[in-house]
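Morning, I've got a small favour to ask if you have a moment. I'm working through a protein record and want to make sense of it properly. The fold is given in discrete form, as structure tokens running alongside the sequence. Can you walk me through what the tokens say about the fold? Thanks so much in advance, here it is:
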Amino acid sequence: MLGDAAHPFLPHQDQGGAVAIEDAAAIGVVLEYNGTPDQVQERLKLYQDIRKSRADTIQKHTRLVGEDLVPGQSPKLDQRVATTFNFGHDEYDNSTQKLREWKWTKQPASYWTMPIAFGPMPGPRQSFEGKPRDLSESTTITSSITFKTSRTMLQNFFPPGSKQFSFTSPGTVAFASISQVTLDGLEWLGGKGYDFIRIQIHGVTYIGKDGKTIQGTYVPVLWENLTDSILSGREELGMPKLYSEIVETRHKTTQIVQTSWRGAKWGYFEWIDLEEVDKDVSSHSKLGFELGEGILMQRYIPSVGRDKRGISETEYTVFEQFPSSLNSKITRILKSKKGYVSIEPQNWTTLPTQHHIIARLADIPIFEVVDARIVEAVGISDSGQIIRV
């Protein structure tokens, strides 16, 4: 037993035995059964850090209580304070939390998001222990419709006031696409999945503050139908994610995707006369525009406080580089002879949080649909390679 052998007390307040019991509880927690021999020294150091300050304070209290007082002198220690300190403490709970926090520091670099009291946040890019997720058996179905439209209209979706974004080609026509993805078999969701849909503006050039140029696809907004993925993407990666219901229906030669917010339908997308084609993706990737190096997005986090309205805590561009080699295996490609896009702006009553977004998208003119396809694959890439640019 440790107790008085480690921190002898004067015989006042009867705390020698009590603190010895606390010591035993603490070391029992710190030297748990599943620890490893190489951790013993560091865990003993943790035990000392946990116990020393409290033991020193109680030792000081016993000395103050034991001092003789001259007539009229007030006690040097408020007994109520000492009693509360002595008995208002649970060492098992305290040591358990300290050990928990110590373990968090031993994990690989991990994402922390709110609420932070419970440790690193598990998600698509890491387990609770900070280990990478296995995405090799996950499946994706990517349905896209690419169309020609007005360059002037699309450039209005670049970040307001930014002069870093422009179109690579000077023409009046630009390319955009609607891309809907169904993910399934995700380890981080217990084998389940979710859907997302996004607007992609192709052929964009970004010039960083250091003069570095990136050519890629700009995504002003995307929607997902699962809260967990929305939060992880917004907080960890800076993606401009919102919520939407997304329902995909596939018939033999037709696929329909409908989007809505609490029953208010705002998007209808259709792939008509689908035919299976060669799975060799290289023979089907030329769509008449350059895909570029990756995907660009704008991160924005507002400051907290009513007097800070309109002021950002931080704002910058993020970039997700396309992998040099595909991490997924394409199992099937279906091409559509005709793709159809319809966006209904609704109003402020039916879309109270997104009308300003949907109404703008509804104004995009579709000059010509140049490609409509569905690509099915196994294995997906981790989006954790997104960087600030």
Observations:
- Residues 277 and 333 are 6 Å apart (CA to CA).
